Amino acid sequence: MAGEAPNKQVPRHGIVASIQNAILHSRFHSRITFHSMADSTSSDSLSLDIDSFSPSPQEHIIRTRHGSISVSVYGDQDKPALITYPDLALNYVSCFQGLLFCPEAYYLLLHNFCIYHISPPGHELGAVPIDSDYPVLSVDDLADQIAEVLNFFGLSAVMCMGVTAGAYVLTLFAMKYRQRVLGLILVSPLCKEPSWAEWLYNKVMSNLLYFYGMCGVVKEILLKRYFSKEIRGGTQLPESDIVKACRRLLDERQSLNVWRFLEAINGRPDISEGLRKLQCRSLIFVGDMSPFHSEALHMTSKLDRRFSALVEVQACGSMVTEEQPHAMLIPMEYFLMGYGLYKPSKLSVSPRSPLSPSCISPELYSPESMGLKLKPIKTRISLKI
């Protein structure tokens, strides 16, 4: 099966204990809620071949039954595949760049995967408006497009990473095509149908997009969706560089293309009851200041606790990949161990290995240096012996 890693068994609950110990010893600044997971790992050590990285993406426009879709491919296509899908009005540059600019995460992901960044229809860099005669797609259509992307590249099973609306689309894809998903890394995910408040909020934004385009009000609504108040700034706090960059990138979006994606997401059905049937492992990140924090907790409660883990990141909004990408590093490392994609060797650790202690940035050990208030780490472990 293309992109599938070996599955070798180790004692139960090892990944939960490993992540917990790593975080406690690194003074990591997230609050972690763990659920037990069946684990697996490999005995191979890693070495990093920087020359194997693709210096720039290969851009593909793929025609599907539901219209064309843009895919940017990073890395060696002989490696296992990691599919990404961004949130509303974003693409891989504005949604995953912060994570990939974190050197340890960049090396970890590019060493183990070829990354296929899928943009929602009409959200890619340089996109043109979608023809107004073309029907608005549903979330099921978007999930089916992903299957066609996999077919185009000859991929059988993939790892998936999505943010909020993109996390919903990838989760729906995993439910419809269970044999094609190895695992889910979800950031501030959605799984329920919109509440009345969200539905109304989205309708206001939808009307503004349709009649006035990507105006200032729409950008402010979207920035509140993505980021915590602390980095959005205010009367006494300056707006952070991350938010300024995102604001500029939003100016480049085609407003009617964003409107189409918003209409699909606002019409999404509740998929909560189907989550327990997922057999792939799931790692969920959510900022405790995200407007979708309760939705992520609800989703975690519906997943099989043997195969899922939740990481709550303090002082962070929805887009953890941009606001606090370092918070994702250690949990992702141990999550990938369960797939045999990485295990540190006591006898032979490459100095360039992404998980070598010498390569972990000092920021991981000093939350204060990141401008965060250090809070006690709370864990809750549910184990089935």
From TrEMBL:
The keyword Transmembrane helix applies. One of its GO terms (molecular function) is hydrolase activity. InterPro entries: AB_hydrolase_fold, NDRG. Keywords: Hydrolase, Membrane, Transmembrane, Transmembrane helix. The chain crosses the membrane at residues 152-175. The keyword tRNA processing does not apply. Pfam families: Ndr (PF03096). Belongs to the NDRG family. This is Alpha/Beta hydrolase fold. The lineage of its organism: Eukaryota, Viridiplantae, Streptophyta, Embryophyta, Tracheophyta.
